[in-house]
Specification:
six-stranded mixed beta sheet, D-Maltodextrin-Binding Protein, domain 2, signal, periplasm, 13 strands, three-stranded antiparallel beta sheet
Length: 417
């Protein structure tokens, strides 16, 4: 009997050691989203008992700070969350990533065809695919309907930048903090500068600056964008202490009703709940949404969108099981499942029909009508220039830099990159 038990234990240990461990590095913090991911991983493991999917978490800022070193170490994950853009390109150039082109285009491109073309194209550089598409998103204004009503504001009347500045003044006059701002993490405030650049100069001006052509970031339209950003800063529109506020704290400020407006992601409604003081936050029915307004005289359109094209970058030594799991995880079936739960606007083709959340549907509709969808500036321009963009946006808002000084700093960084 003892011998039989020993044999069984040995067999069990042998089976366990034969498992392929897939390390999945992420920065997701919403419990409901994590639970769904774990359920999907469990479904895959049930079909592949020789695979163990292990979720590993790093907080947003720690993720960005530690990832470059982690990718060059023996502790590198099999795959990790990516915002694409110049950061992904640089990671690929270091040799840290696996070229997924052959895998994703095998079988007459069946896997590649399962995604929206724009999603796959955005993660492909020089004919090589460096990440598996996961989600698409867009940045927009979210507002507290009750606070707007208290101030006598109608969101649908905010169609120009001047209208927006007027709304900020109206909210202040009503004793309401207009905007929740996250200056501690910096990147949340670069959305304002980015959108103002897009609204003033349009795609042509940004592309010239990105490619270091013409006047670059010293283009008059970009200088004007910085001046408009400074004008917003002079109104002191943010909560007390905003320069030190992290993004979770900023979400909490909005969720607790301590500010009327937040410029944020498509999944803001779910994330504000998690960061609320009472764990509940604003009711979904009390949250409205409107696009970043146009700038009078600018060439950018209200249908030009700023936002994410996110995927999962695979490291060079990842196992075949990791790639197979990603194909399963981002399949139309699973993306539809995540869309139905309000977790993502799917990158998979023909999966948007599962969206049920009204605010997420509005974001999906905005993306569908987008005339130019631009990846986040700090990601698209690469880590070196992106850091300067984030610093400059905060310092212009805080009155510590002029628009011209900020533009010159970004241009200098671009020329050195």
């Amino acid at each position: 009997m003892a011998t039989a038990t020993a044999v069984a234990l040995t067999a069990s240990m042998s089976a366990a050691s034969a498992q392929t461990v897939v390390k999945w590095l992420h920065l997701e913090t919403v419990p409901e989203n994590l639970k769904l991911w774990e359920d999907i991983a469990a479904d895959y493991e049930a079909q592949h008992p020789d695979v163990d999917i292990q979720l590993q978490f790093l907080e947003n800022e720690a993720f960005k700070a530690k990832l470059p070193t982690l990718l060059q170490s023996d502790a590198a994950p099999d795959f990790f969350y990516s915002w694409g853009g110049g950061v992904l390109r640089q990671q690929a150039e270091t040799g840290a990533l696996m070229d997924l082109s052959e895998a994703i285009n095998a079988e007459d491109g069946a896997w590649a065809k399962s995604y929206k073309p724009a999603a796959l194209d955005g993660l492909t550089y020089d004919g090589k695919t460096w990440a598996v598409p996961y989600r698409m998103g867009t940045i927009a204004f979210f507002y507290n309907k009750a606070l707007f009503e208290k101030a006598g504001l109608q969101a649908d009347t905010i169609t120009t930048w001047e209208d927006f500045l007027g709304a900020v003044k109206t909210l202040k006059d009503a004793g309401i903090t207009p905007i929740a701002g996250g200056g501690g993490d910096k990147w949340p405030l670069h959305f304002y500068w980015s959108y103002l650049v897009m609204r003033n100069g349009g795609q042509e001006v940004f592309d010239r600056a990105k490619n270091n052509e013409g006047d670059g970031f010293l283009d008059p339209a970009i200088i004007k964008a910085g001046e408009q950003l400074a004008e917003l800063g002079k109104l002191e529109p943010f909560q007390d202490g905003y320069l030190g506020a992290t993004w979770p704290q900023t979400l909490g400020t909005f969720a607790d009703g301590r500010a009327a407006i937040l410029l944020g992601f498509e999944h803001t409604e779910a994330n504000q709940r998690k960061n609320a003081g009472d764990g509940k936050g604003l009711e979904a029915a009390n949250i409205g949404r409107f696009p970043f307004p146009i700038v009078e005289g600018g060439v950018g359109k209200v249908t030009d969108t700023l936002g994410g094209l996110n995927g999962w970058a695979v490291t060079k030594n990842a196992s075949p099981a990791a790639i197979d799991f990603l194909r399963f995880f981002t399949s139309p079936e699973q993306e539809r499942r995540m869309a139905a739960a309000g977790v993502i606007i799917p990158a998979a083709a023909e999966a948007e029909d599962a969206l049920k959340d009204d605010l997420m549907r509005q974001a999906a509709d905005q993306l569908a009508a987008s005339t130019w969808h631009q990846n986040f500036f700090d990601q698209d321009l690469g880590p070196s220039v992106g850091r300067v963009v984030n610093d400059v946006a905060v310092e212009i808002l805080a009155g510590q830099l002029s628009s011209e000084e900020g533009a010159q700093m970004i241009q200098d960084a671009r020329e050195l990159d």
